[in-house]
From TrEMBL, chain A:
The lineage of its organism: Bacteria, Bacillati, Bacillota, Bacilli, Bacillales. InterPro entries: Aldolase_TIM, Thiazole_synthase_ThiG, ThiG. It comes from the Bacteria. Its main location: cytoplasm. CDD domains: ThiG. The active site is at residue 98. It is found in: Cytoplasm. This is Thiazole synthase. One of its GO terms (molecular function) is thiazole synthase activity.
UniProtKB/TrEMBL annotation, chain B:
InterPro entries: Beta-grasp_dom_sf, Mopterin_synth/thiamin_S_b, Thi_S, ThiS/MoaD-like. Pfam families: ThiS. Signal peptide: none annotated. PANTHER family: SULFUR CARRIER PROTEIN THIS. This is Thiamine biosynthesis protein ThiS.
């Protein structure tokens, strides 16, 4: 069976889903269900003490069915990311962490140095570390050297829906990889998922493209199918591109 | 007693002297939250024994939707 192995975990689904920006909890629940995602990302934030009983998506989930992947979103330094990761783990619900150290509020591109520092510390502390990173092959290698369990290069800026902007770099990262490569951020459409998987990525993590689609539930299903199509295409081995045509029908036996 | 709770100055009732009592005052006993006091995470098993003192910086965090 074709499974995705991250650290000690094993998954059937290669689509990881974010849980932000959904307009209502009901739609979100349905989208998660049809996506068949097994890993869901969350952020860690202060509880609103003005309304502490506010309904919360996590509390509606059957936690036996999902692996939680809290992120360190909001962190601009390695120190902040480590603090958030420790808080997430102290919940007792998970030991996975999506390391995310942002370097710039406008592009939300990762700070490579802070990202590497935080990843190293969290690996040493025993977390299963999935690091959101630039699509930089050398940084991806350095992250693997400090022991991360998966590298998650962005396809394009978070929430931009631009799809894969540097296919070449992504290919270099994938070819060099010793841990799963999960394309994270910037996915806009099912075609982007298929493309990432055809390039040989091990998975896709997306959020906005589903949450803000006109029909998030239908889009969740489409993304699932995009990931599956791309994965199967990758495993099947595509034909080489040729410059000229090559007839599909026999050239022999033509009626004269 | 006045503490800094989730970034805001809050005056606590006299009987709130432990982390456990603080969580109970917001009916959070059954909720999935994590508490940090003066930069240190408080283990769930230590809520009852962990005192709260005047001027403490306390964070109560939880999981929210995110990507």
């Amino acid at each position: 069976m074709d499974t995705l192995k991250i650290g000690s975990y094993e998954f059937r689904s290669r689509l990881l889903l974010g849980t932000g920006k959904f307009t209502d909890l009901d739609t979100q629940g349905k989208a998660v269900e049809v996506s068949e995602a097994e890993i869901l990302t969350f952020a860690i934030r202060r509880l609103n003490l003005e309304n502490p009983q506010e309904p919360n998506f996590l509390e509606q989930l059957d936690l036996k069915k999902f692996t939680l992947l809290p992120n360190t979103a909001g962190a601009y330094t390695a120190e902040e990311a480590v603090r958030i990761a420790r808080l997430a783990k102290a919940s007792g619900l998970c030991d996975m962490i999506k390391v995310e150290v942002i370097g710039d509020p406008k592009t939300l591109l990762p700070d490579p140095i802070g990202t590497l520092e935080a990843s190293k510390i969290l690996v040493e502390e025993g977390f299963i570390v999935l690091t959101y990173t630039n699509d930089d092959p050398i940084l991806a290698r350095r992250l693997q050297e400090v022991g991360v369990h998966a590298v998650m290069p962005g396809a394009s800026p978070i929430g931009s829906g631009q799809g894969i902007v540097n296919e070449n770099n992504l290919r270099f990262i994938i070819e060099d990889a010793k841990v799963p490569i999960i394309v994270d951020a910037g996915i806009g459409s099912p075609a982007d998922c298929a493309k990432a998987m055809e390039l040989g990525a091990d998975g896709v993590l997306l959020n906005t493209a589903v949450a803000l689609a006109d029909n998030p539930v239908l889009m969740a299903e489409a993304m699932k199918l995009g990931v599956e199509a791309g994965r199967k295409g990758f495993l099947a081995g595509r034909i080489a591109k040729k410059r000229y045509a090559s007839a599909s029908s026999p050239t022999e036996g033509m009626i004269e | 007693m006045i503490v800094q709770l989730n970034g805001k100055k809050v005056e606590l009732a006299e009987e709130i002297t432990t982390v456990r009592a603080l969580l109970a005052s917001y009916s959070l006993q059954e909720k999935i939250v994590v508490v940090e006091r003066n930069g240190e995470i408080i283990d769930r098993s230590a809520y009852e024994q962990t005192p709260i003192a005047d001027g403490d910086r306390i964070e109560i965090v939880h999981f929210v939707g995110g990507g």
